[in-house]
Structure formats: C-alpha cells, structure tokens
Amino acid sequence: MAKAVLLLLALLPFPSLALNQDFCIADLPQAAVTADDFYYSGLAATGPPIAPFNVGLSSAFAARFPGVNGLGISAARADMAPGGVVPLHWHPLATELLLVIDGSMVCGFISAALNKVYARTLHKGDLMVLPQGQLHYQYNLGNATAVALSSYSSSNPGIQILDFALFANDLPSEVVSKVTVLDEAQVRKLKAMFGGSG
C-alpha cells in the first residue's frame, strides 16, 4: 500500500513545480510589470466606425491589454448604429459569450457540421454563446444604437471577417469569382469597396 501511495505521488505534478510564474504580461519580465498592465479603459467608449458596416469595435485582447496575456480571457465591445451590422466572421482560437448591454439585435451562428443557422433576437441583459470557429454575426434591430460586450476564452481569439477575407486581398478577381460563383464584375466592385486588388 505504501509503495502504491509513493508511486501515485511521484506521478502527480506538484503545483510549485508545475507553475513557474503566476502571469505573463506579453513579453515583459515580471519585474517590469505594474498595476497598469492589469487595467484597461479601452472599452469605456465605442471604437472608430468600420465602413461599410456602421459599427464601432473596441477590443481588450492581449496586444492592447497585456494583463490578459496567457490567462485564457479577453473582451470586446460592439456599438451598432441603427442598421449597423457585425458581418459574418469567426474566431479560430476562442468561444465568444455575447451580452447585450443596450438596445436589441439579432445574433446568430452557422454550424460547420450541418450548415444550420442558430439565431435569436437579443435584448438588454440577454446572453448568447458563439462556439469557437463558427461563422457568426449580429445586426441592430432598432432605431437606436445597440451595444454588446463580448468575452472570449482566449487572450487572443483571432478574427477573420468573411468580407475582408474574400475582397480585401490580392487574389485575382477571376479566381474569387470562380470559387464563390459571384459575377466577376461584382467581385471587382467588392474588391474596390474593401481595398483589395487583382
């Protein structure tokens, strides 16, 4: 019995050996860390508007808020003017939990396995979870600005917006047309709108 307990203890990691530091502020050594690294006011106001979507986005990811680096959390704020939209996008590295803090919006995602849409109308105080890697969107339903606060299961959730992925690149328009079945003239128009070339 004593040998079994010793064997079990030998196999279990000791917390003091398994964790060599409490946190990791970006690339700073712990000695250079200050309380300011754990404080961020960047979500207090809306971010700059993103054309043509009529939405302002602010993020508290590790690049802007060093205190979250390595902790598996981050946040963002979306302010959608009437008619505003957060276009189809996905976070390859995190699940998102969205909380409506003002107004109302439709929020939905498309499952990768079934191509099924899961959407709900959300009002102030409502939550919706958006699984990691799934295409999702939000749009404002009302006549006033709608505001949402999102939290993520990663300090750097990553983001790829479908419109920018398709039209803000240098992939030739004829190739985009072939792989999307969109008319090449429409692809060129969208590339001009989103700053792409080709």
From TrEMBL:
Pfam families named among the record's database cross-references: Cupin_1
Keyword Amino-acid biosynthesis attached: no
Record-listed oxalate binding positions: H91, E96
PROSITE patterns according to UniProt: GERMIN
Signal peptide (UniProt feature, chain positions): 1-18
Binding site for Mn(2+): H89, H91, E96, H136
UniProt keyword list: Apoplast, Disulfide bond, Manganese, Metal-binding, Secreted, Signal
Cupin type-1 domain segment(s): 41-188
InterPro entries linked to this entry: Cupin_1 (IPR006045), Germin (IPR001929), Germin_Mn-BS (IPR019780), RmlC-like_jellyroll (IPR014710), RmlC_Cupin_sf (IPR011051)
Protein family according to the UniProt entry: Belongs to the germin family.
Record carries keyword Metal-binding: yes
SMART domains: Cupin_1
Functional summary from the UniProt entry: May play a role in plant defense. Probably has no oxalate oxidase activity even if the active site is conserved.
The protein, known as: Germin-like protein
Molecular function terms, GO-annotated: manganese ion binding
GO-annotated cellular components: apoplast
Organism: Panicum miliaceum
